[in-house]
Design brief:
This protein is mostly helical. It is built from 20 helices and no strands. Helix 4 crosses helix 7 and helix 11 crosses helix 13. It is globular.
């Protein structure tokens, strides 16, 4: 009897604890913790915009993905999200990556190889193997970063099929964003030059651990969208228990703000302050667009929720207005002095387009803008300016891979984003994660038109993690289970 009472008491105690504390720790949990730790590390060293972090990230995330697949194989378990659920984006990505690899091959047909290799052989007086890529080292590095990003997406896709783990990832992204926002604000206020690393140029704007404020603004925007999505979900759940009376809803708003909402709001306001003080015009405007998409996708289509949405919208505008009044001077100042248009980037875009048209099918090698652009540079640009990026990620992709395979790489992401948009609008439960992924996609996609933040690993890998979680949560359980069952049956047949 005593043993029975003890067992009953232990069960009652366990029921009072959160489920994630009670359940057994699985392989996926361990991989997930290491995965989040890797995401926290990525922005630390110049936002991973250096060769050494590139190598570390490749070993960390690619190795983690390989270990995860090995664990599934040893257990004989099916993937949480079968490959057939993303077969078309996977095929497009594989074709683009294979073409980039072929561009580096020295056994490509001689007629396809770029003439610069023949010229180099004549100048040096010895034969040099040619290739489509004008700089094989740059293409190899770009491929390394591309496969690292793919590993992050694949891990997030598999790990975040569990809805609780997906929500935890989004909160982790918000928390990581808040930590680096605090670092940036501290550096601006107390460190010499306003930068974390002394070797960086002094800046009157928040840059955190990033090389410049524009890239940091994109990263901060991702964290802000994640935090706002979590806050909206928190308040909606609270409103669902408050009835229809407006006074009760206002009371619930105040009570939630002072209790469960206090920490999330603090994180969001911290990121928002750092974002505004970055002064990045493109980053701030892109983030505003991302938040607009988030709110649009989260709108409930029932009349019962209209009062909740109106109350949340008014509350959000008040908070953003207060933050903008307090920290918006840097952004407004840049708009007044420089406007929205940067005339220096237009000639670069035009020259890049001409270079694309000169080799529309073969391209110049993935990631070779630094080597290819000087061949086409003309007197429309100052001789004192140095351009190692086109400040337009799409143009660089087309220049490197050519129009056909460049379109495949971009279409691969577009299809995944569309999956998230559909999931955000059709799912009755757990639609928040898909909405976050779609909103962040609009943020980084628009900013990629005027800058190269997506070519900075801290931004790219964080975005890939959010996108993977969004795609994992974009479909309902029946669709995923059907695909996983098909995969499991195929595995059994193969064995």
């Amino acid at each position: 009897m005593v043993a029975i009472e003890r067992l009953r008491g232990s069960r009652e105690d366990a029921e009072k604890l959160p489920r994630w504390l009670v359940r057994a720790i699985t392989t996926e949990d361990v991989v997930f913790v290491v995965f989040v730790g890797g995401l926290a590390w990525v922005p630390f060293w110049f936002a991973s915009n250096r060769p050494i972090p590139w190598g570390i990230n490749a070993l960390l995330f690619s190795g983690l993905a390989a270990l995860y697949e090995l664990a599934l194989l040893l257990r004989g378990a099916a993937r949480p999200v079968a490959i057939r659920n993303v077969w078309l984006p996977a095929v497009l990505f594989a074709l683009a990556a294979t073409w980039a690899l072929f561009q580096n091959a020295t056994w490509a047909p001689a007629a396809w190889q770029h003439p610069i290799w023949e010229l180099a052989s004549e100048v040096l007086g010895r034969p040099i193997p040619g290739s489509i890529s004008v700089d094989r080292d740059l293409t190899a590095i770009a491929l390394l970063r591309l496969m690292t990003a793919a590993s992050v997406f694949w891990l997030a896709l598999q790990l975040c099929r569990d809805a609780a783990r997906a929500r935890l990832l989004i909160w982790a992204v918000a928390g990581i964003g808040a930590i680096y926002a605090a670092v940036g604000l501290f550096a601006l206020g107390f460190l010499p030059g306003g930068t974390v690393f002394p070797e960086l140029n002094s800046s009157p704007f928040v840059t955190s651990t990033f090389v410049n404020q524009n890239h940091y603004a994109t990263f901060a925007g991702i964290g802000l969208v994640a935090a706002v999505a979590g806050i909206l979900r928190l308040y909606r759940r609270a409103f669902a228990q408050s009835g229809r009376n407006l006074r009760l809803k206002v009371a619930t708003l105040i009570r939630t703000t002072g209790s469960k909402g206090a920490l999330p709001l603090a994180l969001a306001l911290l990121i928002l302050a750092a974002l505004l003080l970055s002064g990045s015009r493109g980053g701030i405007i892109s983030t505003a667009l991302g938040l607009f998409v988030l709110i649009t996708l989260n709108l409930r289509r029932t009349k019962r929720s209209s009062r909740n949405e109106a109350l949340l919208t008014i509350f959000a505008f008040l908070l953003v207005g207060v933050a903008f009044i307090g920290f918006g001077d840097a952004f407004v100042g840049r708009l007044e002095t420089q406007g929205l248009h940067d005339e220096n980037r237009l000639p670069v875009a035009i020259v890049t387009i001409w270079s694309i048209l000169s080799s529309p099918l073969l391209g110049f090698g993935y990631g070779t803008f630094l080597a290819a652009f000087p061949m086409f540079r003309d007197d429309s640009m100052s001789i004192w300016s140095f351009w190692d990026r086109a400040h337009n990620t799409y143009l660089e992709v087309f220049q490197g891979l050519g129009l056909v395979f460049g379109a495949m790489l971009i279409a691969n992401v577009v299809l995944l984003v569309w999956e998230c948009i559909k999931g955000a609008r059709t799912r009755q439960r757990d639609a928040t994660i898909a909405a976050v992924a779609a909103s962040v996609s609009f943020l980084v996609g628009v900013h990629a038109l005027v800058d190269f933040s997506l070519q900075i690993q801290a931004v790219t890998l964080t975005y890939m993690a959010v996108l993977g979680a969004g795609v994992a949560q974009a479909r309902d359980d029946a669709q995923i289970q059907h695909s996983s069952l098909h995969y499991a049956r195929a595995s059994d047949y193969n064995r």
